[in-house]
Amino acid sequence: MVKKVRLVEIASLLAIIIGSIPHEKCFVFGCDTPLSFITDSLEILGQAMVPSVMLVLGGMLAEGPYVSKLRLKTTVGVIVARLLVLPVFGIRVIGLADKMHLPIADDAMYRCVLLLQYVTHSAILLGAVARMRGFAFSEVSVLLFWQHVFTLFSLSFYIFSCSKLV
C-alpha cells in the first residue's frame, strides 16, 4: 500500500512538472509527439471510466437503502446538509465572487459550472474509497442511495434557479 501511494505521488509530481514546462509539454501532448501514445492510451481509459463508474454505482446501490446502521436523523441530516445547506452557501459564495469581479466576466457557462458543483450529490467514488478502506461501506452506500434519489428533485430546482441567476 505504501508503494502505491508513493507511485501516485511521484506520478502527480511528474505530471505537474511536465504540464508546467512548455518544452516538456510539447514532448508529451500533441498529435505527432514522441510520447503521444501515452496520452492516446489515457484518453481511451478516460472514455471507459463513465461506464465503469456506473457499474460501481450499481454495485453499491444494489444492497438497498436499508442495510446501514445509521439512524434516520443522521441520514436526513447528511442529505439536508449536502443538498440544501451547501448549495445555498455555494450560490452565495459565487454571488459574492461575482460582485468582486473574480470569475470570468460575462461567461454564463463558467458560472453555471461553478454553481452546479455545489448542488450535485456526493462523489460516487466515495463508496469505492469506503470499500477499499473497509470502513462504513454500507453506510456510505445508503447515503449515496438517498442522495441520488433526492438529487432528482433538488438538481432540477437548482438548475432552474441557476438559469435565473446566470
UniProtKB/TrEMBL annotation:
The keyword Transmembrane helix applies. This is Membrane transport protein. It is found in: Membrane. GO terms for cellular component: membrane. The chain crosses the membrane at residues 7-24, 44-62, 74-96, 108-130, 142-160. It is a multi-pass membrane protein. Keywords: Auxin signaling pathway, Membrane, Transmembrane, Transmembrane helix. Pfam families: Mem_trans (PF03547). The keyword Acetylation does not apply. GO terms for biological process: auxin-activated signaling pathway; endoplasmic reticulum to cytosol auxin transport. It comes from Helianthus annuus (Common sunflower).
